[in-house]
Amino acid sequence: MSTYYAYQSLYAFYNNLGEGGTVASKLPTPDLKWETNLNLNVGLEFAILNNRIKGNVEYFQRKSQDLLFDMPLAPSLGFSGFQANIGELKNTGFEFSLFTTPIKTKDFEWNVDLNLSTLNNKITKLPKGSIVSGTKLLQVGGSIYDFFIPEWAGVDPNNGNPLWKTITTDANGNTVEGTTSEYAKATKTLQGSSLPKVLGGLTTSLAYKNFDFSTLVTFSIGGKILDTDYTMIMHNGSAAGRAWSSEMLNRWTPENPYTDVPALSTTTNNWTSASSRFLYSGTYARVKNMSLGYTLPTEYFERWGVKKFRLYVQGENLLTFYKHKGMDPEQTLDGTTYYRYPAMRTITFGLQATL
Q1: What is the pLDDT of residue 1?
Q2: What is the 3-class SS of the chain, one letter each residue?
Q3: Residues sharing a CB contact under 8 Å with residue 254, sequence separation 6 or more, in sequence order
Q4: Most-buried pick from 45, 82, 98, 163 (CB within 10 A)?
């Protein structure tokens, strides 16, 4: 609720040894104002061969100014930050749609439709050089979807400790790369973007006399996903009673020193913290919808006032083609999982009556 009263300084009540008091919980931001968006859309529509092939191409650009964001403050000031209009973004991209009818006869018709879209995100203004926001790095020229996390360097074969990459500068100004088993000392670097290169869908439909069939395949190419849910079953033994991934069977032991899974320990070693170890490709394809139907001859139902009577079976999320098991690749653009329910596979039988 504090977001709606951002212009006010807010206070919280506390009890200290039986004595009540108030403590400032949020700084006032009286200069806060609305965000501004400037939109540009340019498109072209086309159709040839008596509309057997038609489609459209569109370019869009959206400039967002005075964006609301938390301006970070030094912890010594007692506040982690305050809301301010501190940034500008530019989103650009293309959308392409194509509708075709390869075959059309008296009894048979085949349609194929394709749609594609791209999205580029660029930060054009910030009040300071860069801002680290969770697993992302915000900087002018970059994107709000750029992962900024340590790079995984494997497991130390000598003792089974996790390793992350470090980048330092020596006395001569030379860059020195190394590794560390302490997560807090690991160097965060840019590890790619969660934005896919292309999003799209392919629809095909067939109709033969009273039968009809259609299917929709959606897909995403490029981008990365940080699977923070998977880490819940990749603990090193410090979370007693929690389930384990079968990958833990390949953990480090003196007999199995060359592996990508650290040794078990009752001491937390932070190996499941955000790093490139749990960053996976976001490329996937999914049979989103498929249906088969049959329309009964109309003469059987005209006397009852029914124009159309159709029997059908329909399936949703029937197949998913994705390399990383256990995760639904259809995530938000942020690219970080958070206990999101996977798409359910459903099969439906039904009747449709048109009066």
Answers
A1: 42
A2: CHHHHCCCCEEEEEEECCEEEEEEEECCCCCCCCCEEEEEEEEEEEEECCCCEEEEEEEEEEEEEEEEEEEECCHHHCCCEEEEEEEEEEEEEEEEEEEEEEEECCCEEEEEEEEEECCEEEEEECCCCEEEECCEEEECCCCCCEEEEECEEEECCCCCCEEEEEEEECCCCCEEEEEECCHHHCCEEEEEECCCCEEEEEEEEEEECCEEEEEEEEEEECCEEECCCHHHHCCCCCCCCCCCCHHHHHECECCECCCCECCCCCCCCCCCCCCHHHEEECCEEEEEEEEEEEECCHHHCHHHCCCEEEEEEEEEEEEEECCCCCCCCCCCCCCECCCCCCCCCEEEEEEEEEC
A3: none
A4: 163
Residue 230: pLDDT over 50? yes
Sheet holding 152-155, edge to edge: 152-155, 162-169, 175-180
Q: What is the mean pLDDT of residues 242-260?
A: 93
Q: Are 314 and 350 in contact (CB under 8 A)?
A: yes
pLDDT at 167 over 90: yes
Mind listing the pLDDT tens digit for each residue in 191-217?
999 999 999 999 999 999 999 999 999
